[in-house]
Amino acid sequence: MRDLSSLQKILGVPFNDPSFLEHALIHTSYVNENPDAGITSNERLEFLGDAVLGLVSAEALYQKYPDMAEGQMTRFRAALVRREALAAMAKARKIGEFLHLGKGEESGGGRRRPANLASAMEAVIAAIYLDRGLETTRDFIVRSITPELEKIIGHGDSVDYKSDLQELIQAREGQRPEYYLVGTAGPDHDPSFTVEVRFGDHVLGRGSGRSKKAAEVEAARAALEKLPG
Question: CA dihedral in degrees (85, 128, 52, 69; nearest 10)?
Fold first, then answer.
């Protein structure tokens, strides 16, 4: 097993069983190129870490900002757990330097790829949770998200949900999502528009607003909340 003592120091979390951390750093490309090694990728840990991160982020917003409305908390939480924010957290902790990558992924700049960094960050969160429990994980997440949270709060509602969703879908599917107006209500001077964002026949999210643009933004935000990062 690779010596991960330096990474544990960077994370500020000493592991009882470093194999949890080791597992969090195994990219699927490494598994594919080493089929006889008897190892699995960090994808299951990523799934768990996403759930823990969502819980702790929501809790942090609820406790730190007692006067913040539900809709605003929802938007800020979505911004905290988006891929770019997670990749920035991982980069600050040099997680990319410790990833196990396949040769092709390595040569293609995989250690700097935002998707890889974001996934690894979620997997590391899950590793901490499994090894040290919720309290230590909560402390780690709060320390990690505080700088990003302060930046998001400072920018208000300027999170670009449509761009974030487009980048996510293009990275996964190679195509852009499309927006469809599915309903209009209210008088001419105060209309309400309902929009769905779709990929193919699949509805990713639905949103309403007083303009088509606002409804599209809400649909993108709803889609990002449902989609894994």
Answer: -60
pTM: 0.70
| Residue with the two structure tokens 């090894």 | 131
Residues annotated catalytic, as ranges: 50, 122
| Full pLDDT tens readout for the chain, 229 residues | 567 999 999 999 999 999 999 999 999 999 999 888 889 999 999 999 999 999 999 999 999 888 888 877 887 888 888 888 899 999 999 999 999 999 999 998 889 999 899 999 999 999 999 999 999 999 999 999 988 888 777 665 556 778 888 888 888 888 899 999 999 998 887 788 999 999 988 999 999 988 888 889 889 988 887 776 5
Q: What span, in angstroms and rounded, lies between the C-alpha atoms of 165 and 149?
A: 20
Structural domains of the chain ordered from first start: 5-155 (1.10.1520.10), 161-226 (3.30.160.20)
